[in-house]
Amino acid sequence: MINTRDIAALHPIVAAKARAFLESCNAQGIELLVTSTYRDHDSQDALYAQGRSRPGKKVTNAKGGQSFHNWRVAFDVVPLRLGKPVWGTACEDRRLWLRIGAIGKAHGLDWAGDWTRFREYPHFQYTGGRSLADFQAGKGL
Question: What is the pTM assigned to this prediction?
Fold first, then answer.
């Protein structure tokens, strides 16, 4: 199973956008940790099982092949405060996530914090306007 945090594992266009996004956050005093980039289908299936057939909280609605992570065009981050991850959405934390989301969008990334279903503040992606079905049919970036 492959589940990496390496920006280099992303499609080159997405990797360049991710690096620029991380640099912009850093320049604004926001330290981010990349928690996931590319995942193979088996790793995605294991995440999908969490909260369903395996213990834990549901963290995804996507099975293997149904996540943009599987196509090397998505990545997840978490901000660090005093070296500790800030996962929460309390008022102060939510303002931080909104800043991070705005920076990502300024770099042309889609931010899952804007989604109405299964909102994910840590998730960013760049699909070049392609749908999941396009990627599944072999139409990459």
Answer: 0.94
